[in-house]
């Protein structure tokens, strides 16, 4: 009956070419290695090594056996290395879904930086509407989801990011671009590009204008804020959108201004209520929060958004 220690001694002799070197590699005595090899040969009923002067040489049977043994050891070493990488958060696969506001520019850029530091990590990045993202997380198709609030599902835990405001966007050369901050009255009679209901952002925008008795000219409705930004940058209308999409269109001539009173743009971070986050997902989420704070400071100036970024941990809904 062979045992793992005999196989380990055999592999050491094959790797080092001698009993003495194998003993040093295994940190045991030379007689102990000789005894293990002898017992292995007896158990297998094979001659594995022949003496040639002061050295030993493997037989053809030993060479054939070593090919099988080495594959097994490589497999074990790969398992150990994978476990070490997982512990060190250097390998694994993460499935993430995001709403278009994050999934078009901000999140892919963050993913690229995240992967650059983790060459053995793979990420599957999906984009869709918030209800579909909720379903993907609830059914285990994605480990993390980034969606619009509010979100409710019995199988999903929600954490909300507060502290980012929506922004006003104008075409290049618009007279209102001379103002540092825009308010509801600035939109009176202006062509307005709106997101389609029902979204919390659309509700908040409509409520603000209704409270200030402002009539906009509602020329276009679109599901995607990137469409609104593209049309405004092309010279048509004004809008109020999330800051992530607005930033991506600044290089295309879009003019961005703060809007008062502040309209919050909240993000819901979704994860399973049944399965804990992997270590890679925890790292990803922590880095995402840091990246969001950097975005706020760079885009609005430190404190320019008027509120600190806050992660509000929800309960199981």
TrEMBL record:
Keywords annotated in UniProt: DNA-binding, Transcription, Transcription regulation
Transcription among keywords: yes
CDD domains xref list: PBP2_LysR_opines_like
Domain HTH lysR-type as annotated: residue spans: 2-59
Transmembrane segments: none
Protein family according to the UniProt entry: Belongs to the LysR transcriptional regulatory family.
Designated name of the protein: LysR family transcriptional regulator
């Amino acid at each position: 009956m062979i045992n793992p220690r005999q196989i380990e001694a055999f592999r050491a002799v094959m790797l080092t070419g001698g009993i003495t070197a194998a003993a040093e590699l295994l940190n045991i005595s030379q007689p102990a290695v000789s005894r293990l090899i002898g017992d292995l040969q007896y158990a297998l009923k094979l001659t594995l090594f022949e003496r040639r002067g002061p050295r030993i040489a493997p037989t053809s049977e030993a060479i054939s056996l070593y090919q099988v043994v080495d594959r097994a050891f490589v497999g074990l070493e790969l398992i150990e290395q994978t476990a070490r990488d997982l512990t060190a958060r250097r390998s694994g696969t993460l499935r993430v879904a995001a709403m278009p506001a994050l999934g078009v520019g901000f999140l892919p850029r963050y993913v690229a930086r995240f992967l650059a530091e983790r060459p053995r990590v793979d990420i599957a990045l999906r984009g869709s509407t918030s209800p579909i993202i909720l379903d993907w997380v609830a059914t285990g198709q994605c480990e993390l989801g980034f969606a619009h609030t509010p979100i409710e599902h019995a199988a999903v835990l929600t954490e909300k990011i507060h502290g980012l405001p929506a922004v006003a966007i104008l075409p290049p050369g618009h007279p209102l671009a001379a103002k540092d901050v825009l308010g509801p009255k600035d939109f009176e009679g202006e062509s307005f590009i709106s997101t389609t209901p029902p979204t919390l952002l659309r509700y908040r925008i409509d409520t603000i204008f209704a409270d200030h008795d402002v009539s906009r000219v509602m020329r276009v409705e679109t599901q995607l804020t990137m469409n609104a930004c593209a049309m405004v940058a092309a010279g048509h209308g004004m809008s109020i959108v999330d800051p992530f999409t607005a930033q991506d269109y600044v290089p295309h001539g879009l003019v961005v201004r703060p809007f008062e009173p502040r309209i919050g743009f909240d993000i819901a971070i979704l994860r399973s209520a049944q399965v804990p986050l992997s270590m890679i997902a925890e790292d990803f989420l922590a880095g995402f929060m840091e990246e969001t704070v950097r975005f706020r400071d760079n885009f609005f100036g430190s404190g320019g958004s008027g509120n600190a970024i806050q992660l509000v941990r929800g309960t199981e809904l």
